[in-house]
Amino acid sequence: MSLSETKLSRDNADDGKDDAGRLQQYKNLTKHEELRRRRTECSVEIRKQKGADLMMKRRNIIDNEDDDLNECESENEDKDKLSNGNQMSNTNRLSNDEIKQILSSNPSEDDMIRCFESLRKSLSKTKNPPIDDVIQSGLINALVQALRVQNDRVQYEAAWALTNIVSGSTSQTMSAVEAGACAPLIELSCHSDGQIAEQALWAVANIAGDSAQLRDYVIECHGVEALMHIMSRIDQFTTSHVRTIAWAFSNMCRHKNPHAPLPVLKVLAKGLAVLVKHSDRQVRQDACWAVSYLTDGPDEQIELARESGVLSTIVSYLDESENLIAPALRTLGNVATGNDSLTQSVIDLGVLDRMVQLMEKTRSTSIMKECCWLISNIIAGTQKQIQAVLDAHLLPILVNILKSGDHKCQFEASWALSNLAQGGTSRQIVAMMEENVVPALCQALNTTHNQDMLNNTLETLYTLMLTVQTSYSHKMDILHDEVEENGGLDALERLQESQSESIYTQAYRIITQFFGDDENDENGQNDENSRASAAGNAQNQWNF
């Protein structure tokens, strides 16, 4: 069997943005790539916390028999995979050589149980499990062969040991797959014995969670068909088993370089529509993260989530604990990056009205940042959608965050206000001035060193001043005074010395276009005086 590594190049969004037609064209060309690029950058925090939480839940099982097997902790936090540390019964530990000798001598079923249980216990060590030793000894082939032995206990111990092997590195996981573990594990995931089925599915989920390549191999081995067969019997399973099912769905949807094929995701979406309504919170949490991965892609994928009917359920998560709020916000924010129809579906579900209450009560910086990001995606839509944000009274909240929020939240708020400036009507843009945005913009110009945030702030200030000058000229003097009184003009003059060409250009443009009149008048008067003096000197020169 040969498995080749799949590599895809990712196109980076072009940061250069043409000022011409910017108010009308922001969403048309740059929205999807730019917002999705930022989503990747800002997603790490919540996903790391989620991964840590899940790994503790799955591995925190105690064995009273051996101190070095007490509490199994994750040694590989950057992997979206789990290792099973539970222990079952008392057996004397056998060395790998002893196991090989027994298994090579026509062993009885009791001998096999003893060998594979001992092997599983060795692989369940809290620290430094001897995965490589097992692989190098050739016993991984024995474990795979044991999956087909018609003895429940042998199959269970073998599946358990393999679960711990495929919770390791990619090379360790690949060793198990290349030894032929994937197909029999998938078959056992549909076993009539619930313990065997759950343990086998756990191993399959770890394989799928390793990489897009191995996820695709699970698909090739009919893993999706097995999952949907399992879903047809979901009411028969324990809560622990359903949690493993939700985890498997999550790993099947997780990788995006490349995404799973669209027909596969369409099938998985049907299962997720059931899981998001499960009574167990951890099941719902994993299922919601799976939907967030499903929607982290092109419009066709996002549409699958809408068609499956999961979104209305996910919106209700915004009233629950933060463990559910986080994946719900990520999912809804992903949907809002889609086309205008998809963005509108978020609004139609009543999300904006829930945002105000959520943003007022949460103390989580990550949740607040995700709220700002979701709102900025909606503001990047049509002017009708921008108005829905304004009607929900979210603009003053965004302004307040820009002025006094955590710096990560300020960054997201700057994107939201910049999107409004780029896509709003004159009336919508001037609404920012009415909500006292100028002090917040000037403060950002004076305090932030983030170039993207500076660019956002400069673009917002420029568009606001241009709009007022063009459509609300009677407010221009007030706007001038606000900018100067809040240190904005001093900041603009300082930013003209920036090493960034875009920041220098924008600061220079604002000063010359909106603050150059007095200086020009003064220069003009000085030029007139100079000319008069020169004329007088010339006249005196010829007066003998």
Automatic annotation (TrEMBL):
<dbReference type="GO" id="GO:0005737">
    <property type="term" value="C:cytoplasm"/>
</dbReference>
<feature type="compositionally biased region" description="Basic and acidic residues">
    <location>
        <begin position="7"/>
        <end position="21"/>
    </location>
</feature>
<dbReference type="InterPro" id="IPR036975">
    <property type="entry name" value="Importin-a_IBB_sf"/>
</dbReference>
<dbReference type="InterPro" id="IPR024931">
    <property type="entry name" value="Importin_alpha"/>
</dbReference>
<keyword id="KW-0813">Transport</keyword>
<keyword id="KW-0653">Protein transport</keyword>
<dbReference type="Pfam" id="PF00514">
    <property type="entry name" value="Arm"/>
</dbReference>
<feature type="region of interest" description="Disordered">
    <location>
        <begin position="57"/>
        <end position="98"/>
    </location>
</feature>
<dbReference type="InterPro" id="IPR032413">
    <property type="entry name" value="Arm_3"/>
</dbReference>
<dbReference type="InterPro" id="IPR002652">
    <property type="entry name" value="Importin-a_IBB"/>
</dbReference>
<comment type="similarity">
    <text>Belongs to the importin alpha family.</text>
</comment>
<dbReference type="InterPro" id="IPR016024">
    <property type="entry name" value="ARM-type_fold"/>
</dbReference>
<protein>
    <recommendedName>
        <fullName>Importin subunit alpha</fullName>
    </recommendedName>
</protein>
<dbReference type="InterPro" id="IPR011989">
    <property type="entry name" value="ARM-like"/>
</dbReference>
<dbReference type="GO" id="GO:0061608">
    <property type="term" value="F:nuclear import signal receptor activity"/>
</dbReference>
<dbReference type="Pfam" id="PF01749">
    <property type="entry name" value="IBB"/>
</dbReference>
<feature type="region of interest" description="Disordered">
    <location>
        <begin position="517"/>
        <end position="544"/>
    </location>
</feature>
<dbReference type="GO" id="GO:0006606">
    <property type="term" value="P:protein import into nucleus"/>
</dbReference>
<feature type="compositionally biased region" description="Polar residues">
    <location>
        <begin position="83"/>
        <end position="94"/>
    </location>
</feature>
<dbReference type="Pfam" id="PF16186">
    <property type="entry name" value="Arm_3"/>
</dbReference>
<keyword id="KW-0677">Repeat</keyword>
<feature type="repeat" description="ARM">
    <location>
        <begin position="138"/>
        <end position="180"/>
    </location>
</feature>
<feature type="compositionally biased region" description="Acidic residues">
    <location>
        <begin position="63"/>
        <end position="77"/>
    </location>
</feature>
<feature type="domain" description="IBB">
    <location>
        <begin position="6"/>
        <end position="68"/>
    </location>
</feature>
<dbReference type="InterPro" id="IPR000225">
    <property type="entry name" value="Armadillo"/>
</dbReference>
<feature type="region of interest" description="Disordered">
    <location>
        <begin position="1"/>
        <end position="31"/>
    </location>
</feature>
